[in-house]
Design a protein that fits this description.
Elements (H helix, E strand, L loop, with lengths): L5 H13 L26 E5 L4 H12 L3 E6 L2 H13 L3 E6 L5 H15 L4 E4 L14 H29 L2 E6 L12 H21 L4 E8 L5 H6 L7 H15 L9 H12 L10 E4 L3 H5 L1
Parallel strand pairs: 1-2, 1-4, 2-3, 4-5, 5-6, 6-7
Helix pairs in contact: 1-8, 2-9, 4-5, 5-6
Length: 299
């Protein structure tokens, strides 16, 4: 998740601007996501929160590519319509609804609309999240609540309204996006870390609530992923793409032990589909860590 120090990243960007792209070309790049070889979600109904960009967007495309009927939400309507159109242009089925996971009535309406459109719910990927980084005493109560209400309470609300449909269908799979910060974190992330560590506990307890009723619930623990959220947290949202790519690559060499690069959204989305599929029916209440070696080093 957002693990980029703004001053360090801006310094790296300035250094990168003085050099050349060729000088950094030997840095490892993320492998391209492999084409799905099977349709694990044919005729399955998938509901996703936070799918207008980043990991959620990549997951929406991947679920649809494997035959899923995808209903998804996010606050940015233009981006949502673009994702919906991209899926449909490739022959997939998608349905975008603007909804804010902080607002209970909007969450309920979103889930209800997807279930009514497609007749059931089989899979939920609760992914919506934000970050705001500063020393603890500098958060206002409103800022703290905004992070916790989006990341933690938003997942509670989504599950509250998704689970009855899954019970009616005889079972289902829920995947929740936590973060490697739930295991090992750093300064300035108290709100984000509290929310993401809280999600692990939520998943563990809820998994026990519904295991006997055919609903599996698991947590995805991604490391730093090259998304717009991370770029904004680094203060480089408006930097040229070439500068961002070089600075991020250099940062990862010293901050991601092991693979020394960020994940791509597609790589993390691939593991979302693993957890959401029927490939591993004995897995529930678990945490799948996909972080390039970050938490292994921290441990």
């Amino acid at each position: 998740m957002a693990e980029l120090n703004r001053r360090a990243m801006l310094g790296l960007a300035a250094a990168a601007a003085a050099g050349s792209l060729a000088a950094c070309s030997e840095a490892s790049s993320a492998p391209a996501a492999s084409q799905a070889s099977k349709r694990r979600f044919a005729n399955k109904v998938i509901v996703i929160t936070g799918a207008t960009s980043g990991i959620g967007r990549a997951a929406a495309l991947a679920f649809a590519a494997e035959g899923g009927k995808v209903g998804f939400c996010g606050r940015r309507e233009l981006l949502g319509r673009q994702v919906e159109q991209e899926i449909r242009s490739h022959g997939g089925e998608a349905f975008y609804i603007r909804a804010d996971v902080r607002v209970e009535a909007e969450v309920k309406s979103f889930v209800d609309q997807v279930a009514q459109r497609y007749g059931r719910l089989d899979v939920a990927f609760n992914n919506a999240g934000i970050t705001l980084e500063r020393p603890l005493h500098e958060y206002t109560s409103q800022q703290w609540d905004d992070v916790l209400h989006t990341n933690l309470r938003g997942v509670f609300l989504a599950m509250k309204y998704q689970i009855p449909y899954m019970l009616a269908a005889g079972g289902g799979n829920i995947v929740v996006t936590s973060s490697s910060n739930a295991i090992a974190t750093t300064e300035h992330r108290s709100a984000y870390t509290a929310s993401k560590r809280g999600l692990v506990g939520l998943v563990q307890s809820a998994a026990l609530d519904y295991a006997a009723k055919g609903i599996r619930i698991n947590a995805l623990i991604p490391g730093t992923t090259d998304t717009g959220l991370v770029r904004r947290a680094a203060g480089m949202e408006n930097a040229p793409d070439a500068i961002w790519e070089i600075a991020a690559r250099q940062w990862a060499k010293s901050h991601v032990p092991g693979l020394q690069r960020m994940a791509t959204p597609e790589e993390i989305a691939a593991f979302t589909l693993v957890l959401a599929s029927q490939d591993h029916p004995y897995m529930t209440g678990a945490q799948m860590v996909v972080d390039g070696g970050k938490t292994a080093h921290a441990g």
